[in-house]
Amino acid sequence: MRHTFPAKRSGLVIMILFLSFISSSSDTHTPATSPASDMAVQPITSAPFVMAEIAEPVFPAQSYNIRKFGAVGDGQTMNTDAFAQAIQACAAAGGGKVVVPDGLWLTGPVILAGNINLHLEPGAVIIFSRNFNDYPLAPVIFEGVAQFRCQSPISGENLENIAITGQGIIDGSGDAWRPVKKFKMTSNQWKNLLVSGGVVNRDGSVWWPTATALNGESLLAGLVKNQKELTLENVTPARDYLRPVMVRLVNCRNVLLDGPTFQNSPSWNIHPLLCENVIIRNLTVRNPWYSQNGDGLDLESCNNVLVSNNWFDVGDDAICLKSGKDREGRERGRASENIIIRDCTVFHGHGGVTVGSEMSGGIRNIFVNNCTFIGTDVGLRFKSLRGRGGVVEKIFIHNVRMVDIPNEAVLFDLFYENDSSKPAAEKPIPAVSELTPIFRDIHFSNIFCRNAGTAIFLNGLPELPLQHIDFDSVFISSSRGVVCNNIEQVIFSRVTFIAKQEPVFHLSQCRETVLIPSRIKQPVKVWVKVNGAKSKAIYIDGAAIDSSAPAIIFGDNAPAEAVIFRNWHK
C-alpha cells in the first residue's frame, strides 16, 4: 500500500529539514551544573547528572631518577630491575616522582606502586621487551571475563594515588605480538612482514609471530569445547597467543594519566578496570590501523572518570565503555558510570566512542561533549547481543563533529556478531529475561557529520526494542539515510539528512516513532518506507510543511494506520 502526495521526482541528493520538537512526546533534559571538578583548571560543568568531585592525586615533592638505580638509556640494556628498584625506593619513602629522563629505555614489565608518579621527561622513550619470556602468564580479566593472559607491560592493582605523566613515549612493542591480516596490508608490506619471520595460517591470509601464537586459539577452543577448566598448566602452550593489554590498572583509586604518548600495544592500549576517580587527559594514543584488538582506551566498570583533550589513532575502538561480559559481568554488578568524555579527537578507529559489547554490569550517566571523529569506521557505536543482559541508560551525547565515516555515523546493533539479516519471523524470539540487554534513555544533540555510509542505524531486539532515544539538532550527509528496526519512543527533531538513496527513512517494526518535518528542501519521491505488522503509532508532524509532500510506502504487512499525520498541509 502507498500514501501518495504530490511530489516531483528527486535527484541523487535528498534533504529533509526538521525544525520543531513535540515536547509532549519526549522527555526534556536540561543540563545541570555539577559541582564536580578536577584540580587542574578543567572543571566538570554542564553535565546532565551530578558527579562527585574528581581530584588529582597529590605526591610528595621527592624524585627518584632511574639512572641512579643503574638504568642505561641506550635502547639495548635491559632496565627492568632499575625501574623496579626506583619504584620500590620511592614507595618506601612515602611516594613521589619516579623520573624517566631522555633516552631509550628498554625494559620488561613495570609494576606500579601506590603514591607513585611515573614521569617521562621530554625525549624519554620507554620500549618494552620483545621477548615473550619476560611476560609470564597471570590471571586477569580481559574482554569481561576471568582468564589467563601474559603480564602487562605496565600494571598496577589495588593502588591509591598513581600517575603516569610527562611528555615522553611509551611503546609496547605490540608488532612483535599481534597477528596481521593480509588484506589490510599492501603487497610490499606483506612481503616484508613474511621476511621478518613468523608463520602464516593454512590459507595464507593471516601472519602470526610464532607457531605457538598461531595454534593458541584452536588449543583454547578445544579446552572450552571439552569443558576443561582453564589452568595455568593447560593454557601455557598457548602463551604467545595470550597477548597482554599494555597498561592494566585494576581496582585503583585516584588515577592520573596526563601527557605521554601510548603506542604500539600488544592488545588494548589502556585498560582501567574497577577504578574510581580517574583523570585521563592530554594523551596521544596510537596503534597501526590494522592492529588486531588495538583499542585505544577501554574503561571497564569504572566510576567518576574525566577523559579530556586526548588524541586517538588506533586499530580498533578508540574510546570504549565496558562493564563485564555475560554471567560474570552480571554477577560482578559494577557499572561504568559518571563518566565525562570531552574535547577528544579520533582519527582511525572502529568506533569514535563505543559502548559495549561487554556491558553486562550496566553503563549509565555518560556525557560525551565536543568531540571530533575523522575517518573512523563508525562514529558513535553501541553494540550488544542476547545473553549479555545489563542496562545502558542515561547517555548524553552533545556537539560531535564527524567527517568521512565509511559506515554508520550513529549505530545501535543488538545483534552484534550475530546474523540479523533474516526476518525476525523466521527466528524464535526469546522471552525477556536477565539475559536481555536493555538500551534506553539516550540523547543526541548537535551532531554533525559530512559524508557517512549510513546516517543512523538502530537495530533493536524484537522482544525488547531500543527505547527512549531522541535526536535533536542533527545534520548528516550520507549515502543511505536512517534505518530503524524494533525501536520504541524514538524522536527525530530538528534533524537534517542529506541522503543519496531513497527512502530517507526505513522503518521496520517501529512503535511510537516521531518524525517532525517542517520543510522539505528538495522534493523526494519516497520519503518513508514502513515494514512489519507490529509497526504502529508512527507520528509524522508537518505543521510547517510549505512544499509538496513525499510518498509513504507500506510493505511486509505493515498496516496503513501505523502512520498518523499531525497538522499535515496537503
Structure description:
By secondary structure, the chain is mainly beta. The protein has one domain: 3 Solenoid (Pectate Lyase C-like). It has a 35-stranded mixed beta sheet that branches. A 3-stranded antiparallel beta sheet has the order 15-17-16. Residues about 1-40, about 420-425 and about 545 have low confidence and may be disordered.
**Corresponding CATH architecture:** 3 Solenoid
Contiguous helical run count: 5
The CATH topology name reads Pectate Lyase C-like
The CATH class is Mainly Beta
Strand content: 35-45%
Distance between the termini: 19 Å
Low-confidence stretches: 1-42, 421-425, 543-547
Oligomer: single chain
Helix share bin: under 10%
How would you classify the helix and strand content by structural class? Answer: mainly beta
The best one-word shape is globular
What's the CATH H-level homologous superfamily? Answer: Single-stranded right-handed beta-helix, Pectin lyase-like
- Please indicate the count of domains: 1
Gyration radius, rounded: 26 Å
Query: Care to count the β-strands?
Result: 40
